């Protein structure tokens, strides 16, 4: 910085206040600095600007911190969403397969285990397809909800009928009308059941 610039800055910093105190010797001072203890108002505007700038800086810092927190929250939510998507990516396909499994089970129930007739031979092929389909579902962590004989649980069971059986306690599932399934840890289809009153 040049000598002239430094002198300019020093001259700007000199207090140009006019003192109103009677016993002050400001006028006698050669560099026009007021040595009395009266408040100087020379730099009030500059001080106000500094205060305003500091307030703006603090506001911007707060906004920056909020934006950083929002970004971190967004990243975390995105990662959780991606994890959930990856975990349950086959759910829709499995839901589409479940009615096919139901139909295979209905067809297999028609078998009277008389292996000499044509229907039994035909249904034995169905049994193989059904077994393969169930093993594929098990491979992808799809499991059947156990319902018959257990206490009714609205998380896993959907009561569509009620009946009364004195031999069993109230609230127990008497019959499974349609099997329910769990995919990993999520119920993808609740079991439709008949419940004892």
Short précis:
The chain is α+β, with helices and mostly antiparallel strands and about 200 residues long.
Pick out its properties.
197 residues; alpha+beta; 4 helices; 6 strands; elongated
What does this structure look like?
- This protein has 197 residues and is α+β, with helices and mostly antiparallel strands.
- The protein contains 4 helices and 6 strands.
- It has helices spanning 3-13, 44-87, 91-109, 118-139, and strands spanning 142-144, 157-163, 173-178, 181-183, 186-189, 191-196.
- The strands form 2 sheets. It has a 3-stranded antiparallel β-sheet.
- It is elongated.
Indicate the topology.
Blueprint: H1 3-13, H2 44-87, H3 91-109, H4 118-139, E1 142-144, E2 157-163, E3 173-178, E4 181-183, E5 186-189, E6 191-196
Parallel strand pairs: 2-6
Antiparallel strand pairs: 1-4, 3-6, 4-5
| Main beta-sheet strand count, sense and barrel state | 3 strands, antiparallel
In what range is the share of β-strand residues?
Answer: 5-15%
The ordered string of helix (H) and strand (E) elements is HHHHEEEEEE
- How far apart the termini lie comes to 96 Å
Number of strands: 6
What's the pLDDT, averaged over the residues?
A: 82
Helical proportion, percent range: 40-55%
Strand order of the largest sheet: 1-4-5
Total of DSSP H or I helical runs spanning 4+ residues: 4
Shape: elongated
* Rg result: 42 Å
Structural class: alpha+beta
The parts where pLDDT drops under 50 for at least 5 residues are: none
């Amino acid at each position: 910085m040049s000598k002239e610039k430094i002198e300019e800055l020093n001259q700007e910093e000199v207090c140009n206040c006019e003192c109103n105190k009677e016993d002050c010797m400001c006028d006698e001072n050669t560099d026009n600095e007021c040595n009395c203890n009266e408040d100087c108002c020379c730099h009030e505007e500059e001080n106000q600007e500094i205060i305003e700038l500091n307030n703006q800086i603090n506001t911007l810092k707060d906004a920056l911190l909020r934006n950083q927190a929002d970004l971190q929250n967004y990243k975390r939510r995105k990662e959780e969403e991606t994890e959930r998507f990856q975990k349950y990516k086959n759910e829709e396909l499995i839901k589409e397969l479940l009615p096919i499994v139901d139909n295979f089970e209905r067809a297999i129930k028609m078998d009277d285990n008389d292996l000499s007739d044509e229907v039994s031979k035909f249904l034995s092929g169905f049994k193989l397809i059904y077994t393969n389909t169930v093993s594929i579902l098990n491979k992808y962590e799809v499991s059947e909800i156990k319902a018959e004989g257990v206490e009714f649980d609205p998380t896993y069971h959907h009561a569509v009928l009620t009946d009364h059986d004195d031999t069993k306690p109230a609230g127990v599932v008497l019959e499974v009308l349609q099997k329910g399934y769990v995919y990993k840890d999520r119920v993808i289809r609740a079991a439709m059941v008949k419940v004892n009153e």
